[in-house]
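Quick question, first post here. What does this chain look like in 3D?
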Amino acid sequence: MEYSKISDSIYIMHPTQGNKLQKSVTNTVPTTCIAHPDGLIFVDCGTYPNLSSKFRLDMETKFYRKTTHLLLTHLHWDHFLAIESFKDVDIVAAELGINEFNNFINTINQVEVDKWASRFLIDDEEIINIVKKVDLFPPNTLIKEELIIGSPGNEVIFRIIGGHSIDSAYVYIPSQKVLCAGDNLIECYAQLPGTPEKTIEIYTHWASLAIDKIIPGHGNVVDKKYLLKVKTYFEDLVSALKNLIKNKIPRKEIFSHHTLPNYFAKSLPNWIESSKPDMNWIEMTIKGWYRYFKLNKSIFTSRR
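> Answer (accepted):
Ran it through. Tokens below.
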């Protein structure tokens, strides 16, 4: 476990366990602590209750403040499995995600955890044991659109934006120029976006905000330049796919086509191809968007 100082009032915890060298979806989710004047606000809690509890205690000791909120950027299990570490505070999530949460609970209650882990190619015994023992309960504050904590000048904004999942939200701290992006922006893996229009909409909105640092859903902290590079890649991908379809290039040939943009982050040192050895997330997105455009021909007449 490592802590990183983002600003005088914001720290993140990287849940690297022991001497593990191989990154995975479970040990790359950062947990953020925002030292708000009215109390500590945490964003996502990851998968390890022991680490989340220690991080919370350390931050409460450091800032001499109690914890008031846990904000969940979306209700995928790798972001909320350690929720028991925050059972005594307001736990905030999008109302749209509660079915996803309940489906996970029902699945692990009805199916043996080992079978669940096998189905999702999870071979980490520590995670499997956590799922077997963890105390899970639903968020107690469900939001339809937006929640603002604090007064002007000290506000923390929780806003539902969709994209990666229907309940995906981001957390923005204007006074610190810091954005917690959730899985709509990832640093160590390829992006896992929603539809092309929603993806460009999200990145365009974020690009309009005053941001110095971005805490992604997985990986290390990035800056606005990284966001703009991701935005440009997807804009170029949309343009290339539309042209390939117009020119009747079959899907099996698109990956070798010279007009397809290269994903810039593959050359970065922290890059991992995907969370599973037999899956290429970039290829998955390209195939999905190609199919999406083929099925939605009216999009070709819309402005970029």
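The mean pLDDT is 92.
The first helix runs from residue 49 to 63.
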